[in-house]
Amino acid sequence: MKAMILAAGLGSRLRPLTDTTPKALIKVAGRSLLEHQILRLKIAGVNKFIINTHHFAEQIEAYLANNDFGVHIELSREPELLDTGGGLKRAAWFFDDGKPFILQNVDVLTDFNYTGMIEAHQKSGAMATLAVRH
User: Fold this and answer.
1) Which of 61, 66, 106, 123 could form a disulfide with 7 if both were Cys (CB 3.0 to 4.6 A apart)?
2) What is the mean pLDDT of residues 75-99?
3) At what angle do helices 114-124 and 33-43 cross, to 10 degrees?
4) In sequence order, what DSSP letters do the residues of 40-80 get, joined into one string?
């Protein structure tokens, strides 16, 4: 299974923390937001990732080069911010197999049951499944 983690944003709401660090590398409970996402999605069966980068992209690249999560990771560097739709379109080549994938923001920390959502999506035959909360 594949996933895209959206990590290109400026992290404006987390300033001043993001003045020198990309939002994806801000630590929560001793782990970066990016690590939280990769590990949670890996548990759900994701083994191929693409991560879009922009703000301090080189820091994210170095972080991934120095950490082995046991999954395949590609990067999609955006010279200018493309927002969600543009970032996904730029990474469309990664999803050319026509199989379902997960699109996840790097700053959403949750204990959500991804496995259950994936199973429900596959059973439904829907084009897309969106996880929301009340």
Assistant:
1) 106
2) 90
3) 50
4) HHHHTT--EEEEEE-TTHHHHHHHHHT---SSEEEEEE-SS
The CA distance from 134 to 132, in Å, is 7
99: CB partners within 8 A, 6+ apart:
1, 2
Cis peptide leading into residue 79 (ω within 30°):
no
- Distance, in Å, from the CA atom of 122 to the CA atom of 34, rounded to the nearest integer, reads 26
Mention every residue, 6+ apart, whose C-beta is less than 8 A from residue 21.
56, 59
**Residue 101, H or E segment:** strand 101-105
Distance of alpha carbon 113 from alpha carbon 117, whole angstroms? 6
Residue 31 has what pLDDT?
96
Mean pLDDT of the chain: 92
112, 97 Cβ separation under 8 angstroms: no
Express each pLDDT in 29-86 by its tens digit.
999 999 999 999 999 999 999 999 999 999 999 999 999 999 999 999 998 989 888 8
Tell me the two tokens of residue 109.
């920390």
Structure tokens at 64: 């991934």
